[in-house]
Design a protein that fits this description.
The chain has about 260 residues and is α/β, with parallel strands linked by helices. It has one domain (about 1-255): Class I glutamine amidotransferase (GATase) domain (Rossmann fold). The protein has helices at about 20-30, 50-55, 65-90, 100, 145-150, 150-155, 220-225, 225-235, 250-255; strands spanning about 1-10, 35-40, 55-60, 95, 105-110, 115, 125, 135-145, 170-175, 180, 190-195, 205, 205-210, 210-215. It starts with a strand and ends in a 5-residue tail after the last helix.
Length: about 260
């Protein structure tokens, strides 16, 4: 098996250490003797269908406004159609904060300006500026039941004998002014226990669509939730069997993270 990671806009979208997600996928795969290859796809990359067909997991992070502006035109006009085909055909991916927003229909700023998205996810994002507080702080969430009941996800934790491993939960950090609202048919990635999530109103966090995930969790998310990393590795490699790694220290930190103030 070989895990080919498509890392989109690595030079622009790494505001809160989201590159760490790629490093963790790489590390956890190699610890299991799974070959990996990181394919960096930036604005100057000539993307083709052949190149996309080689990728079995996509990572796309969040970035400052300046970074997102630099990649926006390229995403919208050059690479968006490839992402759409990949996601709609069941490709595995994780899209964080700004990239998550851009995969929706639009982003509306506080001054009324509209930024068109790719419309792959049925959602939209609005910023209310100073009228509403920024969504920032530690998060605790519970995974979508569709993920928890996935046979691939169950294979990760069934038989794991440590009581400290709460595989149903996610912990992380968020920092965003935009508030995202899902379409009626869209399912969230998780339910908010502590924090703001999509909009600080309806208790939803992120989106889970086919085999792709959008989320506001920075951190990087995989460093504090290795079960999520392993789930996506398994989905990408189309296997329900991964060698177990010793994550006892990580899950002690995971449990402690739940006690942190928001």
């Amino acid at each position: 098996m070989k895990l080919k990671i498509g890392y989109f806009y690595s030079n622009l979208l790494n505001l809160y250490g989201d590159t760490g997600n790629v490093e963790i996928l790489n590390f956890r795969s190699k610890k299991r003797s799974i070959d990996t290859e990181i394919i960096e796809i930036n604005a100057d990359t000539k993307l083709t269908s052949d190149l996309m067909s080689e990728i079995n997991i996509i990572v796309m992070g969040g970035g400052p406004d300046s970074g997102q502006k630099q990649m926006y035109e390229d995403l919208l006009h050059n690479k968006g159609s490839y992402l759409r085909d990949y996601i709609e055909s069941g490709g595995v991916g994780i899209f964080i904060c700004g990239s998550y927003q851009l995969l929706g229909h639009y982003y509306k700023s506080a001054d009324g300006k509209m930024l068109d998205g790719l419309g792959i996810f049925d959602l939209y994002t609005r910023s209310f500026g100073v009228k509403r507080p920024r969504c920032i702080g530690n998060m605790v969430c519970e995974l979508n039941p569709d993920i928890l009941n996935d046979s691939v996800f169950k294979s990760i934790y069934e038989g794991y004998d440590s009581p400290k491993c709460d595989f149903a939960s996610l912990v992380g950090f968020e920092n965003h002014s935009g508030r995202t609202y899902l379409g009626v048919q869209m399912k969230p990635f998780a339910k908010v226990i502590k924090g703001h999530g999509n909009n600080s109103e309806d208790g939803t966090e992120g989106v889970h669509y086919k085999n792709s995930i959008g989320t506001y969790m920075h951190g990087p998310i995989f460093s504090r939730n290795p079960h999520l990393a392993d789930y996506l590795i398994s989905k990408a490699l189309k296997t329900d069997s991964l060698d177990r790694l010793d994550d006892s220290l990580i899950y002690r930190a995971h449990s402690f993270s739940k006690t942190l103030p928001q």
